[in-house]
Amino acid sequence: MLIDRHCHLEGSLDPAWVRAESVRRGLTLPAPLGSLWRGEAVAFDAFIEAFLFGSKLLDSEGAIRAAVGAATRRTKAAGAAGFDLWMSPAFLVTHLKQLSLDAFWRGVESGFADAAREGVHACAVVDAVNHFGPVHGHAVLDLVERDLPPFVAGFSTGGLEQVPFREWAPVFDRARKAGLRIAAHAGENGPGSNVREAVLEGGVERIVHGIRADDATLALLAERGIPVDVCPSSNAALAADVTPHPLPRMLRAGVRCALGTDDPGLISCDLADERAKAAAMVLTEAELTKLDAFGAADAWCLAPRTEAS
């Protein structure tokens, strides 16, 4: 069973929908968005500009449902059976103030119901922004934890890896007590040492990217069975200095790697593309099979949420 282990709601929008909405609203597409759609590598801050442009279009229940629908169609077209979907309700609801939390959750719930009718599994992972710091992380939990929908499986940090993960540990502990599983983007736009710190001092149970981790950290991940979501197309666009891609080294070190699309509405790809890119890294058939197996075994969309303590 193939699972897209990592994609973002805000980065999953169908480009045709984005173009149509931009025309309808009289908006000009940002230059980095065009660069990404053409398959060009961009700096991380330019990517964020494109990501935020799409986010600002998500201002209604219908728009949220459309974004989930785009992820569903892309997943099904790739022959996959589900996806773990990262999303940032606090940014849309509290920061931009462009829709209510109820409208946001209704849009996600409707989108997930549509996915289920298509035979596609889905769950939500609430994403906070690392560089906004732990106060922001607690504010995200203040917003969502009182009436947490059952389809929310986890809590994560993304953004720039600027605040030490040890400072995020109390936020992660609070989210865990609310029944959420804990992940973090680490070793993507920050040093590989962030991966080790996220696990040892942040208590994170899943890593997104992790591509800058050194051999000792890979050994730690393997020893502890920490799953790592790897996104080759996104890494090529946003971490082009990491060459060759370390996925073969990670797998051969015993790390439970799986494939994700990250932001496939911005960086054009689906899970079939990611698998083809992995195969081009001279992975054996056994290693490709292992990627698929880890993808399903460690997917949160196939596992129930833990009970709050």
Q: Can you put this structure into words, describing what you see?
A:
Helices cover 48% and strands 15% of the residues. The chain has helices at 15-25, 31-37, 44-55, 61-77, 89-95, 101-117, 134-144, 165-177, 193-200, 215-224, 232-238, 247-252, 271-279, 285-297; strands spanning 3-8, 82-87, 121-129, 152-158, 181-186, 206-209, 227-230, 256-259. The chain is α/β, with parallel strands linked by helices. α2 (31-37) packs across α3, α4 (61-77) runs parallel beside α6 and α7 (134-144) packs parallel to α8 (165-177). An eight-stranded parallel beta sheet has the order 1-2-3-4-5-6-7-8. The two termini are 32 Å apart. The chain has a single domain (3-302), classed as TIM Barrel. The protein is globular.
Summed up:
By secondary structure, this protein is of the alpha/beta class. It is built from 14 helices and eight strands. The protein has helices at residues 15-25, 31-37, 44-55, 61-77, 89-95, 101-117, 134-144, 165-177, 193-200, 215-224, 232-238, 247-252, 271-279, 285-297, and strands spanning 3-8, 82-87, 121-129, 152-158, 181-186, 206-209, 227-230, 256-259.
Q: Which SSEs are present, and which pair or pack?
A:
Blueprint: E1 3-8, H1 15-25, H2 31-37, H3 44-55, H4 61-77, E2 82-87, H5 89-95, H6 101-117, E3 121-129, H7 134-144, E4 152-158, H8 165-177, E5 181-186, H9 193-200, E6 206-209, H10 215-224, E7 227-230, H11 232-238, H12 247-252, E8 256-259, H13 271-279, H14 285-297
Parallel strand pairs: 1-2, 2-3, 3-4, 4-5, 5-6, 6-7, 7-8
Helix pairs in contact: 2-3, 4-6, 7-8
